[in-house]
Task: inverse folding
């Protein structure tokens, strides 16, 4: 994600920042100015931060309008809903479920979509309505279909769009199904994280059309992919940079507790080994993404302790295998236990070593292809060089 930078508060200050970052191009500047972000942000927001805490405390325009205005015209995401609307009040909830996305991400994705006036566009995830307003300004409301699964979010977004003078086709429903009544689309913009690109979305995109979507691996890490749809129903293209979106509701994952993996008291029959690969080395977004592109059905969880140490757990989605690696500050060798038929730590190590051997490539060197039958494969630099599979 882009580093937050200090600039003069206000629409023009944010525009200057985004243009300096080369994410707001001149062809999108008129839409940016015509569709102010503040018109699509509610009174109560939780601004994102970049120090690793995950989010700041609430800001309420009714009690602190100046702070609210500064947050709106900063390059940060703004959480607007928690726990699918079940959470109320100004405290943070457990899981953010709607936001007004970080402006640099908004315009980098809109730019990647390459829409022109009169392009037919499908947006999956209306959210607060800002993207739909920007698209409506650029291509015309009659060319935009936006789908939102949350009825309350949809209602407020539709009201904001109407108040701003836009009338896209606004649907309350499952965005993973697209909206076939208006297909085919020249472009599809997805504003939720996916582990699988739905076949319905590909099938509703015009050959030669583009799909821009956050794509997350099972293991972790996420990046925006730009797919071009082909005549045979396949699609492929490069990743264009890291992202961190809320998961599409239909693809949310509910994990089994670690206790369900263990057979008896600790070490629960686990095989003890040692490793020089630090859990710290595999915890950042990029190595997690590289590991996730190579592995299948494996995911991590960190159990932290007061002294700064932690246990990195690995588990498989089939609930058959587990591994732990114990990190202690200052240590060079780390204790590992593995249980079940899969050696999950060994799989992780092989994936990390491959990435390291390739020169630690960044997000933009990877790509994704979906065959006509929907089978995905990741690649490095070219579809002719598939990413190796581990496990």
Result:
């Amino acid at each position: 994600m882009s580093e937050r930078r200090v600039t003069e508060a206000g629409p023009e200050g944010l525009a200057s920042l985004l243009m300096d970052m080369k994410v707001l191009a001149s062809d999108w500047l008129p839409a940016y100015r015509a569709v102010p972000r503040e018109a699509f942000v509610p009174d109560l927001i939780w601004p994102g931060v970049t120090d690793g805490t995950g989010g700041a405390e609430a800001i309420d325009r009714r009690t602190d309008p100046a702070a609210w205005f500064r947050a709106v015209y900063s390059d940060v995401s703004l959480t607007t809903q928690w726990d699918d609307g079940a959470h109320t009040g100004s405290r943070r909830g457990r899981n953010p479920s709607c936001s007004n996305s970080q402006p640099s991400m908004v315009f980098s994705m809109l730019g990647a979509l390459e829409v022109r006036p009169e392009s037919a566009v499908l947006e999956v995830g209306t959210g607060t309505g800002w993207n739909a307003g920007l698209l409506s300004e650029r291509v015309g409301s009659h060319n935009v279909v936006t789908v939102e699964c949350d009825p309350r979010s949809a209602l407020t977004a539709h009201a904001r769009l109407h108040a701003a003078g836009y009338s896209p086709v606004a649907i309350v429903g499952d965005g993973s199904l697209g909206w076939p009544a208006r297909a085919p689309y020249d472009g599809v913009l997805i504003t939720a994280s996916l582990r699988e690109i739905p076949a319905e979305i590909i099938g509703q995109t015009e050959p030669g059309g583009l799909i821009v979507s956050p794509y997350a691996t099972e293991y972790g890490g996420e990046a925006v992919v730009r797919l071009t749809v082909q005549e045979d129903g396949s699609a492929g293209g490069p990743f264009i940079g890291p992202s961190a979106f809320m998961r599409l509701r239909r693809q949310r994952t509910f994990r089994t507790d670690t206790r369900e993996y263990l057979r008896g008291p600790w070490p629960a029959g686990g095989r003890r080994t040692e490793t020089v690969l630090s859990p710290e080395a595999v915890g950042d977004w990029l190595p997690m993404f590289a590991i996730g592109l190579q592995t299948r059905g494996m995911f991590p969880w960190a159990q932290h302790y007061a002294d700064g140490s932690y246990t990195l757990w690995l588990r498989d989605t089939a609930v058959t295998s587990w591994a732990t690696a114990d990190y202690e500050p200052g240590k060079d060798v780390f204790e590992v236990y593995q249980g079940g038929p899969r050696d999950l730590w060994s799989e992780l190590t092989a994936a990390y070593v491959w990435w390291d051997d390739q020169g630690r490539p960044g997000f933009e060197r990877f790509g994704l292809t979906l065959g006509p039958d929907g089978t995905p494969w990741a690649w490095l630099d070219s579809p002719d060089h598939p990413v190796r599979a581990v496990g």
Q: What stands out?
A: Residues 254 and 317 are 10 Å apart (CA to CA).
